[in-house]
Known about the structure:
Strand content: 15-25%
Number of helices: 14
Structural class: alpha+beta
Shape: globular
Largest sheet: 5 strands, antiparallel
Amino acid sequence: MKQIKRRASAALLLALFMVAGTVTILTRLLLYGDQWAAYSANSSVYTSRGILACGTLTDRSGVVLAQADENGYRYAGDVNVRVASLHAVGDYRGYLGASALTAYAGKLTGYSPVYGTTNPGNTVALSLDAELQSAAWRQLGGRKGAVLVMNYETGEILCMVSSPSYDPEQEPDGSIEGLFLNRCLSGVYTPGSVFKLVTLCAAVENIDDLYERSFRCGGSIDVAGVSITCTGYHGEQTIEQALANSCNCAFAQLSLELGGDTLAAYAEKLGFTESHSLDGIPTAAGHFEAVQERSSYLAWSGIGQHTDLICPYSMLRYVSAIAAGGVLREPTMLLNGHNGSTRMLKESTAQALEEMMSFTGSTHYQSVFPGLDVCAKTGTAELGDGYTHGWMAGYLRGETPLSFVVVMERGGTGYTQAGGVANAVLQRAKELYEHD
């Protein structure tokens, strides 16, 4: 009898293990089946070269951006849309790994737990707007740079253009420097004065009498025997005026008072020194160095020079959070996609930053952005070789809740060059979305 009980117990235990194993396998199949189906070794959805062989990517209006089936591969019919959207969408030749074709491969395969993968796969609608993509590409005019536009209320990215680019229907010229780099997500640049928005955030939250102070600018300021030069002679000014004037003297003083550790902590807190994930696509991390206190290096780093580096995507996250009262709707490239929200700033801090950024807009940007309610900051980053990166970052208020970042790589000033591109793209965006 004891032997029968032992055998029965062993059989019951074995059955329980089998049930537990089956449940585990089924659970993992439901959770990760689409990822397994999208694994590049799956010959039913990938070619022998490891290229996805099914599925369709469209823009938010249904314009086909990329399509694969038994008849081969196709891209957008408009060459401007093809070239403009290349880095965001991807290339069936496999030159661009971090793109929508790889990020959404599981969705494109048409996988279901019951039927597996299907041919010709699924249609995945991206949040990108083909018209806005084309407009940004035309404005870049072949110059190296990056343009990002996002709806900061939903997190949907409407525009992601990186230049230089190429027509995916043609063989690319691999000798062109940075041709395969998505500058929006993987580029890092000296920020220049757009970094003053980081220093300003730290000042708002750590200097109690910030708004009562007067900052004097005589064209330069001496820091440890080194002259920190400014763009003009601004005289006595408030903090609002200092931001509007983009005064290096005022922000050098703030940097020295705040200290390197505080600035480094804010650069980290605001997401500039870490890599992020856009629907699974990793982005580049920036750099900020907590240098010696009271040094000229600290003064320069607080105004966006020295060894500072920023990814355009990280700047987009920051200005989007300011626009939305401190809460970031995490970006996505999927139409009606949702990646949750992140509280990046105190609401009061976001409101203070907006007031000062709008002050800037009212005094300097009306001729650059006619008819647009813009809160923004420019940056002209000195590279030490006679060239500069031009930056413009900010957002629109009102019926068109769009945030934006434009970087002109070694391409002149933020005010003139980046501002001109930003205005043309935003004017087109306003036409498309003002009454949505």
